[in-house]
Each structure stands twice: as structure tokens, then as C-alpha cells.
């Protein structure tokens, strides 16, 4: 009988890792970095020890203690986890660190799959110095609705809408029924039909594993959508006479392209950091310009013609820009870029610098995760036998319809398809 184990994403946002086993064959859905509920012990300013990145995380319970998954050289000498196990395959839902961050430690004989668009993003990140710790696995590219067999298990890759290319859910077909895993998804982005199509393909599954990020948020209003983001960016460009600074998540290629069009219509040019411009060109945005192509003299001459992404790791460079006293009013449009928010150590110094230079902060982004109402509409439409809410601090706030049983996953515990535990 097939079993399910949860090795991440339990009671926290991120770190999803779901292991499905059948007759000695294993499928691992996602392999993200864990952020423990008490806070990430490896957050800045902690420096990771070279060569011990995985071993130190395992020592502290910050990575799954699964035998036969990780390369022996990344483990403690003599670790029992280095022993080979049954046939294993990893399937990554999308290229965010909390879903893919441990993939570089996987042993070479274990295939690591992801949608081809996600692999394009990951290889571009690696080529521009933003790759995974311990290098990249030998990526196995998947296309829409492609199926891969792992012994008696068959894994189907189904696109969903998220804020990064190649986001996918998975349907794991077992002899005891189908498990549907949403990955991270939403219904208010650029491609909502992808997520609804996934819901329809997964309808009636024996087990649903869904992310529930927004269940932990108290927000009675409707979720902001990409139309709101585009409208607010256009409005900021119109009413800001000076330089507009931009904090935008560069892996959200749909939003990058939308902002480029909005800026062009407003008579402005977006200038990215060198690293981000190089990344964007590799993923098919050839018009991405860097500071090397737009010198500071041009920004000072006509600040109202430009939008600039500053480097949050080089805050003193803000002093070189045409902002503050003696310059037209500037602002910073924060559209889900770095630093991400008050929970991040870099946020306080970032906002302190903006305040010191008289740069108003305007938050105009929207979530990459399904809102609470959409999560409940999804559940009504999909109607699995059992639902596991993960990737949330509040799993009990997902209220299934009659006939659907909600199970709160426990870390490392095993659940059986069709058995009393599921």
C-alpha cells in the first residue's frame, strides 16, 4: 500500500517535502530549504561553513533525514544517510528556494525533475552567480502534462499559476489512488486558468496536499491582483516627478514584462542591477538594461525619465543617485522584491536609508499565493477524500466541505493510502 510522509512545510510557510512510497520506490515532491518555526538559525548575519552546509542543517533538524537521498560527500563522514535506498526520484514544483534549495545536494543517480520553464530560470540563475548551494543537479526537463514512471508510481506534471515561470502541481498516480500536490499557486495572477485546470484534472483525488500560506493572514479584503499592481505602478510613474526606485522580484517574468511596457508608455526606462539584467536577458528579456548602459550622468540629467532597481546589499550607493534635497521628489515602488518584508533582517536598514534620504516607500505588490476564499472554492470543486494543508502556520483554518476529511500532517509521520491513517 502507498504511504505518504511529510518532511517539511509542516506548521511553517515554505520547506515543502512530501515523500510517497510504494514497494520500495520513492517519489519526493519538492526539496526546499527548511525555515524552522523558531526562526532560521542560518539567517543573516550567520555565515554558512563551506562544505558543511547540509551536514550542519541535518544536525539541527533543518533538512530531511532520508537515507539514499543526498550525496555522501555532503554528509558527515560515516553517516547512515549515505547508504543507498530504493529507486528514488525528485520532482520540484517551482524555482523558489523554499521548494528547490536542497536540490544541489541530491546524489547524482537520483533524477531531479522540474518543468522546462522552471529549469530555464534555474540555469539562468546559476549562470549569473545566483545558483543553488553545492551546484546544480542534472535537471530532467518536464513539459505540460508529461508523465514519469517510478516503479508502480506515475507522476504527472500539471502547470499552475504562481509568480515564477514553470510553476507546476503534480498528480502522483498510485495503485491505491491519486495524490494531488498543488505546489504554490494562486487564482489572481496572470494565468488563473492554469490553476483552475489543475483543480479540474485533480478532481476526486484520494489525497490532496495543498499549500495554505494565506490561511495564517487576517485580511478580510479581497486579494490584490496583477491588475491592481499594474495600475498602481502606472500611477506612481505619473505622479512622481523624479527618479522612481523599484524593488521587484526578478523571477516574476510576467510582471517584469508588464512593468517594462508600463514604463515605456510613461516615457521611462527601467535600469536593473548588473546581475539581474544579465539574468533577465538569459530568460528572454533582451531589453533589460544595466547601469553599464545607462550611466549616472544620464540619471542625474533627467531623473524623471528613469526607473532604477537599487542593490539592497549596497545601500550607500543610494547616495550616488539623484534623490533627496535638491532633486525632484523620488519614491520607491516595492513590488515583492528584496528585501521581502519586515521579517527579513535587511528590511530595517533598507527602510532606514529610505527615510534618511526622504524617499517614500509605496508597497504595490500582490501575493503569489491563493487567497482564503479561493482555497475554499478550490476545495469545493476538487473534493478529494482527504486534504492535508501544509506550507501554512494555520492549517486548521482550512474548512473542507462535508465528505472531505482534513488531516493535520505531523513531521516525519507516515500515512497510508486507503488506511485508517488517511
TrEMBL record:
<dbReference type="InterPro" id="IPR011108">
    <property type="entry name" value="RMMBL"/>
</dbReference>
<dbReference type="InterPro" id="IPR036866">
    <property type="entry name" value="RibonucZ/Hydroxyglut_hydro"/>
</dbReference>
<dbReference type="Pfam" id="PF12706">
    <property type="entry name" value="Lactamase_B_2"/>
</dbReference>
<protein>
    <submittedName>
        <fullName>Ribonuclease J</fullName>
        <ecNumber>3.1.-.-</ecNumber>
    </submittedName>
</protein>
<keyword id="KW-0269">Exonuclease</keyword>
<dbReference type="GO" id="GO:0004527">
    <property type="term" value="F:exonuclease activity"/>
</dbReference>
<dbReference type="InterPro" id="IPR042173">
    <property type="entry name" value="RNase_J_2"/>
</dbReference>
<keyword id="KW-0540">Nuclease</keyword>
<dbReference type="InterPro" id="IPR001279">
    <property type="entry name" value="Metallo-B-lactamas"/>
</dbReference>
<dbReference type="Pfam" id="PF07521">
    <property type="entry name" value="RMMBL"/>
</dbReference>
<keyword id="KW-0378">Hydrolase</keyword>
<feature type="domain" description="Metallo-beta-lactamase">
    <location>
        <begin position="14"/>
        <end position="236"/>
    </location>
</feature>
<keyword id="KW-0694">RNA-binding</keyword>
<dbReference type="GO" id="GO:0003723">
    <property type="term" value="F:RNA binding"/>
</dbReference>
